[in-house]
């Protein structure tokens, strides 16, 4: 007889390809902000990160937020959390060789990223384990699983949406192309 098993403390990463916004308009808006505002430096190295956006300042941002609101509602229902509301969102422009350092989103129950313009070789989105399993697991080369892996990697691509717990550490590696990688990040909480 097999032992009963339960999975506790999972790190869920939701992803989808969506087509509810005009990426050309979002890209134009991103470059407008880069040209007209100073932006800020939080996790970005070599790129532009806008200040927090106002929800009603751009129609395409509103369309994206409307869709993400529905997705975050579904995510919160799946994991038994209360209804969350958007806390903030911002635009990232990562030119060649720029990247985002390892970080999490303090105070957010859900965080996420939507790729407005991303191609192959523009860096990978990595999520890191938050426990100390690396000190206990033996070296594993051939049978890497969700259980024994120390990190998860995703290839950013245009129209990709990722939602994940705000406490899950993540980074995006350097853009290895001549084109900019453009994304919109967001946080949701109670």
What does this structure look like?
Helix content is 18%, strand content 30%. By secondary structure, it is of the alpha+beta class. The chain is globular, with a radius of gyration of 17 Å.
CATH architecture: Sandwich
Question: How large is the radius of gyration?
Answer: 17 Å
User: Overall mean pLDDT score?
Assistant: 94
Succession of helices and strands: EHEEHEEEEEEEE
- Name of the top-level CATH class: Mainly Beta
Say how many strands there are: 11
Number of helices: 2
State the gist of this model.
The chain is α+β, with helices and mostly antiparallel strands. The protein has two helices and eleven strands, in the order βαββαββββββββ.
List the helices and strands and how they pair.
Blueprint lengths: L13 E4 L5 H14 L7 E2 L2 E2 L9 H21 L5 E10 L4 E5 L6 E8 L7 E4 L22 E4 L5 E6 L4 E3 L8 E9 L1
Antiparallel strand pairs: 1-9, 2-5, 3-4, 4-11, 5-10, 6-9, 6-11, 7-8, 7-10
Which terms summarize this structure?
Jelly Rolls, alpha+beta, 30% strand, 190 residues, five-stranded antiparallel sheet
């Amino acid at each position: 007889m097999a032992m009963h098993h339960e999975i506790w403390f999972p790190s869920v990463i939701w992803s989808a390809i969506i087509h509810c916004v005009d990426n050309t308009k979002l890209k134009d808006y991103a470059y407008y902000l880069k040209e007209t505002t100073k932006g800020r430096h939080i996790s970005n190295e070599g790129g532009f990160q806008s200040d927090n956006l106002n929800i009603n300042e751009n129609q395409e941002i509103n369309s994206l937020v409307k869709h993400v609101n529905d997705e975050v509602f579904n995510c919160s229902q799946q994991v038994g959390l209360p209804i969350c509301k958007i806390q903030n969102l911002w635009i990232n422009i990562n030119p060649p060789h720029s990247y985002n350092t390892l970080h999490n989103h303090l105070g957010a129950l859900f965080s996420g990223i939507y790729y407005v313009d991303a191609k192959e070789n523009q860096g990978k989105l990595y999520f890191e384990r938050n426990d100390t399993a690396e000190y206990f697991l033996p070296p594993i080369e051939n049978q890497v699983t969700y259980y024994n892996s120390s990190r998860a990697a995703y290839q950013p691509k245009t129209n990709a949406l990722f939602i994940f717990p705000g406490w899950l550490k993540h980074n995006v590696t350097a853009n290895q192309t001549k084109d900019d990688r453009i994304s919109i990040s967001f946080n949701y909480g109670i």
